[in-house]
């Protein structure tokens, strides 16, 4: 049932034909007793393009040739394994006896009048945690009330170009450009070029999850 709901959401079941074009990704990480579990999906123009389950990312739409896709699969798997090993190591030094759940939802929309909107939202254990303000490349706290973990995560994410300027460029320029090309229907060449960018989005999100190790550490002890 959960998979059907995910697929329905990614495929835009019941969507308005006049709705804006969308390029979105949902990625979840669950950490419990030192073990990490990953799952999520990416969709382009209402079609499920990639599915992440555990350490495996699957190309649902044939956007990349098999050889190129195999290389990207290895990159994603290597990163996830590295992240999992870090969590195991840190959990031995500072055990966390409860489950942590991190949810990242990001992407962009292109409206019929040519305007666009990009977003990046993060929640921790079901509560709004952080969001990325794309126009000025800043992370903003969303947690209700004072919270040392949210303060810590915000400061960490603001330290690096990859999680500020690079992310801003991807969401504000690259992501929107994908939808503009899709809208213009420029042919097979542009459709194939989407795939590295989709995986770039996935890898960008996972890189941010590397910062989340600090969140888990901070939550389990002192920042």
UniProtKB/TrEMBL annotation:
N-terminal signal peptide: 1-15
InterPro entries named in the record: Endothetial_C_recpt, MHC_I-like_Ag-recog, MHC_I-like_Ag-recog_sf, MHC_I/II-like_Ag-recog
Gene3D superfamilies per record: MHC class I-like antigen recognition-like
UniProt KW Signal keyword: yes
Keywords for this protein: Glycoprotein, Membrane, Signal, Transmembrane, Transmembrane helix
Entry GO terms, CC: extracellular space
Gene Ontology MF term list: signaling receptor activity
Coiled coil: none
Any single GO BP term: negative regulation of coagulation
Protein name: EPCR protein
């Amino acid at each position: 049932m959960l998979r059907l709901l995910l697929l329905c959401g990614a495929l835009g079941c019941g969507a308005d034909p006049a709705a804006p074009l969308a390029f979105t990704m949902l990625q979840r990480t669950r950490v419990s007793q030192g073990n990490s579990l990953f799952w999520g999906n990416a969709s382009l123009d209402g079609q499920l393009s990639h599915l992440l389950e555990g350490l495996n990312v699957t190309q649902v739409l044939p956007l990349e040739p098999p050889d190129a896709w195999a290389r990207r699969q290895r990159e994603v798997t290597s990163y996830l394994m590295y992240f999992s090993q870090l969590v195991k190591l840190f959990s031995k030094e500072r055990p966390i006896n409860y489950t942590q759940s991190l949810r990242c939802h990001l992407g962009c929309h292109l409206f019929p009048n040519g305007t666009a909107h990009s977003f990046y939202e993060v929640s921790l254990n079901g509560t709004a945690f952080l969001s990325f303000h794309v126009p000025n490349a800043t992370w903003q706290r969303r947690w209700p009330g004072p919270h040392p973990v949210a303060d810590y995560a915000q400061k960490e994410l603001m330290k690096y170009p990859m999680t500020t300027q690079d992310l801003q460029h991807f969401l504000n320029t690259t992501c929107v450009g994908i939808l503009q090309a899709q809208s213009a229907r420029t042919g097979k060449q542009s459709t194939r070029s989407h795939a590295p960018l989709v995986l770039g989005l996935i890898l960008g999100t996972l890189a941010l999850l590397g910062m989340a190790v600090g969140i888990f550490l901070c939550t389990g002890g002192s920042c």
